[in-house]
Design brief:
It is built from nine helices and ten strands. It has 284 residues and is of the alpha+beta class. The protein has two domains: 167 residues, Jelly Rolls, CATH 2.60.120; 96 residues, Homeodomain-like (Arc Repressor Mutant, subunit A), CATH 1.10.10.60. A hairpin with a 2-residue loop joins strand 8 and strand 9. Helix 1 runs antiparallel to helix 3, helix 2 packs antiparallel against helix 3 and helix 3 packs across helix 5. The N and C termini lie far apart (60 Å).
């Protein structure tokens, strides 16, 4: 799949012409047998349930799904009889035409593949529905200025799609970044980690990083690090005869008294009490 930036770059080179716009409410027994698609088209599902099979692969047709069909695709479409599909569709053709080094480059659709193909999940459905509604309304009118407005709305629709995909990608990248710092803490909990350093590692401000970490992990970064250290200390208290100062140092605390306060705050008992309760040999 192309990145949103690559999609935008490819779409910027295209001159598109609308062939048909419409809004369809399916009957409960609606079914289109497998057939080869003749035209490029976008379908936005807004209500109901169904299944679309593209090239032998089954896809759920439900609100928030956008389908981009290209000529030659073998597609079968059917609705759930209890929840009939409702969708907007837009049929179009295009030519690639752009200027490069003061030379105009022109390619047919056969020479330049359309950058959207298959099924996509969209999150900004209300804005897309609004744009499809406007295009559907303008399709019923005629006139040169109306035709210009349709072109502008089509470009706005494509821009909305790319922006939506970019936002989804950014959210996914952010989640991965948070998980990377989580993994780093697991492997380096004994080191003097700071909130500022972790946020810098994630490429985020301290406040934004803290907020996202709490959202995805369930703890603040410092609370998560504290629990990592205390959990490791519990193991050492039960399984070893190390002195309290050594155990504190091995989990990232240089001050054994501060470590004891943190440990009791998290567990409800002091390290010595915990060791006495969970192993036979008391801590030195």
């Amino acid at each position: 799949m192309l990145t949103p930036g690559e999609m935008a770059s490819r779409l910027n080179r295209l001159v598109l012409s609308i062939l048909l716009v419409g809004h369809q409410k399916c009957a409960p027994d609606w079914h289109q047998k497998a057939r080869a698609i003749k035209y490029y088209s976008l379908w936005l599902v807004i209500k109901g349930r169904g299944t679309f099979t593209i090239g032998g692969t089954l896809y759920p047709a439900e609100p928030g799904k956008l389908f981009c069909f290209a000529p030659g695709m073998v597609v079968e479409r059917t609705t759930d009889p209890e929840q009939p599909l409702e969708y907007y569709f837009l049929r179009f053709h295009y030519t690639e035409c752009y200027e490069e080094k003061e030379q105009w480059i022109v390619n047919s659709a056969e020479e330049s593949r359309f950058p959207l193909e298959g099924m996509y999940t969209v999150t900004n459905t209300p804005q897309l529905i609004y744009l499809f509604e406007q295009l559907d309304m303008l399709w019923k009118r005629r006139g040169h200025m109306t035709a210009m407005r349709r072109k502008i709305l089509l470009q706005e629709l494509l821009l909305t799609l790319v922006t939506d995909f970019r936002a989804q990608r950014a959210a996914g990248d952010t989640t991965a970044t948070i998980e990377q710092t989580q993994d780093y803490m697991i492997g380096h909990y004994q080191e003097p980690l700071t909130l500022e350093g972790l946020a810098q590692m994630a490429g985020l401000s301290v406040s934004h990083y803290s907020r996202l970490f709490k959202k995805y992990i369930g703890y603040s970064p410092i609370d998560y690090l504290t629990h990592l250290r205390v959990d490791r200390a519990k193991e050492l208290l039960v399984l070893s005869d190390y002195r309290l100062k050594s155990i504190a140092g091995s989990v990232g605390y240089t001050d054994e008294f501060y470590f004891s306060r943190i440990f009791k705050k998290v567990t409800g008992v002091s390290p010595r009490e915990y060791a006495k309760k969970h192993r036979f040999t008391p801590i030195q």
